[in-house]
Design goal:
Strand content: 15-25%
CATH architecture of the largest domain: Alpha-Beta Complex
Strand order of the largest sheet: 10-11-12-15-16-19
Shape: globular
């Protein structure tokens, strides 16, 4: 009995060995054939046939039924993702309508401009007086999770869709920030974002016009022209153009606004693969409505795209001083192409170059005068979180409703007694923001704005 089993087992081993040899030979032959095919360039006809075959098998054999539209929309997005360009994207009819609404300056969400850097969802800039800005979101913050779900492999358009939603609803985002040891968590409540594109104020004592431009949308040029006209009536001796936290917008608006301050020469040039589409945007002397005013531009790490066109033109022409910190570095041009069925595609077609011929894409523009903004340090941020969670700040302002030096000292003494000290700047900023949160936001606040203070000082020279 045992001899029979041994013989049978030996026979099976021989068969298995023979099968293994056959499989090895087949695999080697197949691999050789595949390698030879891989070296061949597949024809257009062959590629179309390959795509249709993949589509056929997915539609007929995939475990769940999927609509043809969903598959083809996914195929288009997959094709665009192969370009490795976060600014090139396909938009459904709904997403196209959202983009048009956004460019008109009235949309729902958190007030946050995002991009992708090294395949990581990255904040370009929060928009002033929005949930994102008030919560302390900063340019360069890397959004790792949205509502506790990873953003890895999430497309830019899908991320925008998740961050937007019905006003009054909340969303949680998890952020990694350079210089911070731990992940930061933000609970934000969505609002209808209404952007007042231009805000301005005449500084009577200094005889200077201050104007803040928050976005380069369809109304930006006319709104800024009106502000400049007011400065002229008041005999302004100089202008401060504030582009901080401005994420960009329309190329045409950037060209025309630059032209307000520059009489002649190149403002920006765009270059791409199709040389016949390369274009040089020059200044029109008749459009230079503020070319004789002394000028300072304020920009920072949240100034991108169209903001950098204006900043670069003014700096290269030595038309004014750039005060602040290095800009974001988004120097590519997208063309929004209207497609069938209400869809569209934002396609990067060119990069733009400053008058001196420099591309600032992923580099940014260095300031003439480097002035970092005041900010909370690590201890400030850690203690601030605890101060709010324990309602120390909220309880303090119930009994102390006036913001002055005496109230600040009293607040700091209270915190010191609890081992939760804040720096002078953080204590003042925290207390002032809490006491004035129901007031209308002032156009400028010179107490804390060291960049604006420096801009004024430069123009007074």
């Amino acid at each position: 009995m045992s001899n029979t089993n041994t013989s049978t087992t030996a026979g099976r081993r021989k068969k298995l060995l023979g099968l293994a040899v056959c499989l090895t030979l087949f695999t080697a032959a197949t691999a050789g054939q595949m390698d030879a095919n891989a070296r061949k360039e597949i024809s257009e006809e062959g590629l179309t046939e390959l795509f249709n075959a993949a589509l056929f098998h997915v539609r007929n054999d995939y475990v769940d039924e999927v609509s043809r539209q969903a598959l083809l929309f996914g195929a288009i997005r997959g094709m665009l993702s192969a370009l490795d360009d976060a600014h090139t994207r396909f938009m459904t009819q709904e997403e196209t309508n959202e983009l048009q609404t956004e460019m008109r300056g009235n949309f729902g969400g958190l007030g946050i401009e995002i991009s992708q850097r090294d395949n990581v969802l990255t904040v370009v800039s929060p928009i002033e007086d929005t949930p994102a800005m008030r919560a302390g979101i900063k340019p360069g913050d890397k959004i790792i999770e949205i509502d506790k779900k990873t953003t890895r492999d999430l497309s830019l358009s899908d991320a925008v869709k998740q961050l937007r939603g019905k006003p009054g609803t909340s969303v949680n985002i998890s952020v990694v920030r350079e210089g911070e040891d731990e992940m930061l968590y933000f609970d934000l409540v969505r609002e209808v974002i209404k952007i007042q594109v231009v805000t301005s104020q005449f500084l009577e004592n200094e005889k200077l016009g201050y104007v803040r431009l928050k976005q380069f949308n369809q109304t930006a040029t006319d709104d800024l022209a009106k502000a400049i006209a007011e400065f002229k009536k008041k005999k302004a001796k100089g202008i401060i153009l504030d582009l901080r936290w401005n994420p960009g917008g329309l190329l045409d608006a950037a060209h025309r606004i630059s032209n307000f301050f520059i009489k002649s020469g190149v403002i920006v040039s765009t270059r791409g693969r199709k040389k016949e589409l390369d274009k040089v945007f020059n200044a029109d002397p008749s459009a230079a409505i503020a070319a004789d005013f002394p000028l300072v531009v304020l920009a920072n790490e949240g100034s991108a795209s169209a903001s950098e066109i204006v900043t670069g033109a003014i700096k290269d022409h030595k038309r004014g001083k750039f005060v602040g910190v290095k800009t974001f570095g988004k120097g590519s041009v997208q063309n929004v192409i209207s497609m069938m069925y209400g869809t569209s595609m934002a396609l990067t077609i060119q990069k733009y170059y400053t008058p001196s011929g420099v591309s600032i894409h992923k580099k940014g523009i260095e300031p003439d005068i480097n002035v970092p903004a005041l900010d909370f340090n690590k201890d400030d941020r850690r203690h601030y979180k605890e101060i709010r969670e324990k309602k120390i700040l909220q309880d303090f302002v119930k009994e102390n409703s006036t913001y002055n030096a005496e109230t600040v000292k009293k607040f700091q003494k209270l915190l010191a007694g609890k081992g939760l000290t804040l720096s002078d700047f953080a204590a003042k900023r925290t207390l002032k923001d809490e006491l004035t949160k129901k007031d209308s936001r002032p156009v400028i606040d010179l107490e804390f704005d060291v960049q604006l203070q420096r801009a004024i000082a430069e123009l007074k020279k």
